[in-house]
Structure formats: structure tokens, C-alpha cells
Design a protein that fits this description.
Layout: H1 17-30, H2 39-57, H3 72-95, H4 100-114
Helix pairs in contact: 1-3, 2-3
């Protein structure tokens, strides 16, 4: 087995939260990191990664969807920081014994009830700003 512990990417595909959770648990276990992965420590690491993600946007002003004016290096850095945030969120949920996928779906239902679509709801084709 290679030193990356089987973490090579062969082709683009959808990856489940369960697969990420399993791979993160294995990654931490073989490195002896489980002892450091308390909910508090993971949350603090997550906050640090969100800070690094924020730095990317800090002085850019408004950014167009699709990042048309960004260099490939800037986009790669953004991918890396977003991935760091995602991986810490998934690991934190796992360590806390939560089903993050189900929790997210439940939250979407709650949000739909809290923010129902009405006749006054702006559509994606309208130019009206969302007033939430």
C-alpha cells in the first residue's frame, strides 16, 4: 500500500458523506490522531480553516459566480481550503456520532417550512434581492 494510504483519485465521481467519514476515520486511526480528535479540537481546527478560506475572499470585493476572473492557482487554493472545511465538518459530525447527511436533509425541510415560497418570493430570473 502506498504512503497516501490508498487516497489516490482515479476519476471524477460523486462521493458520499459516509465514504468521506470512513476514509477520514481510517486516515486518523493509522496516524494515531484519534486521541486528538475531540469535538472541541476538531471545532477549533475547523474555525482555523474557515479563517484561511475567508482570507481568499478578504480583499476581492464581490466575486462573480463561476469565478471567471480567477486564475487556476486561485481556484486550486479555494478548492483546497473548501475541502479542508468540509473534511473537518464531516469528521466533527462523525466524532459526535451524528448522521450529517440526514441532519442536512432535515434542516432543508425545516428551512422550507420557515421560508415558504410565496407570490412575492423572488425567482432566480428576477433582479430582486433576497430580503432574508
Amino acid at each position: 500500500m502506498d504512503c497516501s494510504y490508498g487516497f489516490s483519485i482515479t476519476r471524477p465521481r460523486d462521493v458520499s458523506l459516509q465514504e468521506l467519514s470512513k476514509r477520514l476515520a481510517e486516515f486518523a486511526e493509522v496516524r494515531g490522531w484519534d486521541q486528538y480528535h475531540s469535538p472541541r479540537n476538531l471545532l477549533l481546527a475547523l474555525v482555523g480553516e474557515v479563517g484561511e478560506l475567508s482570507e481568499i475572499f478578504q480583499w476581492k470585493g464581490e466575486v462573480a459566480k463561476g469565478l471567471p476572473n480567477w486564475s487556476s492557482d486561485d481556484k486550486e487554493r479555494l478548492e483546497e481550503e473548501l475541502s479542508d472545511v468540509l473534511l473537518y465538518v464531516v469528521r466533527l459530525a462523525d466524532v459526535c456520532g451524528l448522521d450529517l447527511g440526514q441532519a442536512a436533509l432535515t434542516k432543508l425541510v425545516k428551512n422550507a417550512q420557515k421560508y415558504p415560497v410565496t407570490d412575492n418570493t423572488p425567482t432566480s430570473t428576477s433582479n430582486q434581492p433576497c430580503m432574508n
